[in-house]
From TrEMBL:
Residues 158-268 form the Pyrrolo-quinoline quinone repeat domain. Residues 45-69 have a biased composition (Low complexity). The chain crosses the membrane at residues 86-107. PANTHER family: CELL SURFACE PROTEIN (PTHR34512), OUTER MEMBRANE PROTEIN ASSEMBLY FACTOR BAMB (PTHR34512:SF30). It comes from the Bacteria. It comes from Streptomyces luteoverticillatus. This is Pyrrolo-quinoline quinone repeat domain-containing protein. Keywords: Membrane, Transmembrane, Transmembrane helix. The lineage of its organism: Bacteria, Bacillati, Actinomycetota, Actinomycetes, Kitasatosporales. Residues 1-82 are annotated as: Disordered.
Length: 514
């Protein structure tokens, strides 16, 4: 007896609609050995694809085609191109099958927030070093490790290390408050929501069976609760997705149902019911993306939902054999995907406001640098900046300068087409990384060398033409060079921060320039 195809996840109720003829679902999304000639000619054709093996390929989608007449990526072999073509056809049919709101597109539509208009380059400023924060004594013994991106609240820059959450006054660098972490931290939330952050910790470094809520506006711990499974047994969650949304803190992973707690008092709450098990969520303002897995069928979905109601706007089926490793943007939806058993990402998937595939961007075509992304942390990619319909990425280069730093360029890619808008080499023998958008222009940190300080560049989003924005002081060049090689860069409220990511040899943890 033929088994019916699995149902997609379900959530909030949808408005009733008149009966209509629905095209059949196309469930086989395996991409490696499907011959394009066997794909139905239309969404209403019968699906003929039988089980196919998951064979090897150079990349999850195969080699990408050049981005245009000025593309520099190498053209792939015929076999990989067929695999990529088959996937695009298969994905196109899969998504078209849902276009009548009876398939994967469930309800509603949304528009992208308009990109901020670019202003002309500001007058370059010779920045000064405002302050440096030393590595706390408690973190020196086992080595410093930053557990989350730098947070900002109430005029403070807030850093989470293995042993404490500490706020530094943005103007003076003096500690405003510090909340000790019992034992050792394993992970912290990627952002502060309504003044609250969350930290997973444990008695030992890898126990990771406790959850703590921190009020970063007032510098106090609210509560700490043990992470337990449905049977009340301790359930370590070091590889989990940690998110805060609607007064709830959710700890989700692939090993069981999400563990949900009320922000105010830590009371355990019932997880949301999407019809499949949620294993991650990323929220941004009034929208969020939820990752869910229907374990019985081996299906994985990405859902766009309204956080206040959990009403599904659309659902996208992740192709078989792939996994969503990171989320670069919620609106527009931009995902980093890779093979299930591979830690390296293969492609960017751009979805439109209805959850339909807009474009596939091959990471190897740049190649683009995603070395700061962690497969187990959905929001860990700090080297990419998304603004409107453009993503800005650093290239990955084998060329190194005399200091051992990779020399690279910045590329702007159109999310609607997957094509390059421009490439900015930026000159010099330096490494470059996107930092943030500021007044409609892209800020790029051009790393220091051993002999010369770095700078913050301002790039025109139209053509990538650079202008100096902040020239960092030569006097702090040595410390800057040391931190920049193993750290992250941030720009907030007119200040530029360099923060050590991890390491045993650093005496300085953070630098602030203005």
């Amino acid at each position: 007896m033929t088994q019916p195809p699995p149902s997609p996840p379900h959530g909030g109720e949808l408005p009733p609609e008149a009966p209509r003829q629905r095209p059949p679902q196309i469930w086989d999304t395996r991409y490696d050995q499907r011959d394009p000639r066997t794909v139905p000619a239309s969404p209403t054709a019968a699906h003929q694809g039988g089980p196919a093996g998951f064979g090897p390929a150079p990349g999850a989608f195969g080699p990408a085609a050049p981005d245009g007449p000025n593309a520099t990526g190498a053209r792939g072999s015929g076999g990989g191109g067929k695999r990529r073509k088959a996937l695009i056809i298969g994905l196109g049919l899969l998504l078209v099958a849902g276009a009548g709101t009876g398939g994967w597109l469930l309800w509603g539509s949304g528009g992208n927030d308009p990109a901020q208009k670019s202003k002309g380059p500001a007058q370059a400023v010779d920045a000064k070093l405002d302050w440096m924060a030393p590595v706390p004594d408690a973190d020196k013994e086992h080595g410093l490790k930053q557990m989350a991106p730098l947070w900002f609240a109430k005029g403070n820059a807030i850093m989470t290390t293995s042993k404490a959450v500490t706020a530094y006054n943005a103007e003076t660098g003096k500690p405003a408050w510090s909340v000790p972490i019992p034992g050792s931290a394993c992970k912290a939330s990627s952002k502060v929501v309504d003044g609250i952050a969350a930290v997973i910790h444990g008695k030992e470094q890898f126990d990771c069976n406790m959850l703590m809520a921190v009020d970063v506006e007032h510098g106090r711990a609210l509560w700490s609760k043990e992470l337990t499974n449905d049977k009340g047994l301790s359930s370590p969650s070091d590889g989990s997705s940690l998110s805060i949304d609607r007064g709830l803190i959710s700890v989700a992973d692939t090993g069981g149902d999400p563990k949900v707690f009320a922000v105010g008092n830590g009371e355990r709450k019932k997880p949301r019911d999407f019809g499949c098990r949620e294993y991650g969520a990323v929220a941004d303002r009034s929208r969020q993306l939820v990752l869910a897995q229907c374990q019985a069928f081996g299906r994985t979905f990405v859902m766009k939902t309204q956080p206040k109601s959990d009403l599904e706007k659309w659902i996208w089926k992740v192709p078989d054999g792939l996994t969503v490793q990171n989320v670069l943007s919620v609106e527009p939806a931009l995902l980093v995907v890779g093979r299930e058993n591979d830690s390296d990402p293969s492609d960017l998937v751009s979805l439109d406001e209805k959850g339909h595939l807009r474009s596939l961007i091959s990471i190897s075509a740049g190649p683009y640098d995603f070395s700061d992304c962690w497969k187990t942390e959905l929001t860990s990619c700090h080297g990419a900046v998304v603004d409107g319909d453009t993503v800005y990425l650093p290239t990955k280069s084998a060329e190194m300068n005399v200091d051992g730093v990779n020399v690279n360029a910045i590329v702007a890619i159109d999310l609607a087409t997957g094509k390059k808008r421009w490439t900015a080499p930026l000159g010099g023998n330096r490494g470059n990384r996107p930092v943030a958008m500021h007044e409609g222009r892209l800020l790029v940190y051009q790393q220091a060398t051993k002999d010369e300080s770095g700078k913050l560049l301002s790039l025109d989003p139209a053509d990538g033409k650079p202008a100096d924005f902040l020239r960092l002081p030569q006097e702090s060049n040595e410390q800057e060079f040391s931190i920049a090689r193993s750290g992250n860069a941030y720009f907030h409220d007119g200040r530029f921060y360099l923060v050590v990511n991890e390491g045993l040899m650093h005496s300085t943890m953070m630098m602030s320039f203005h």
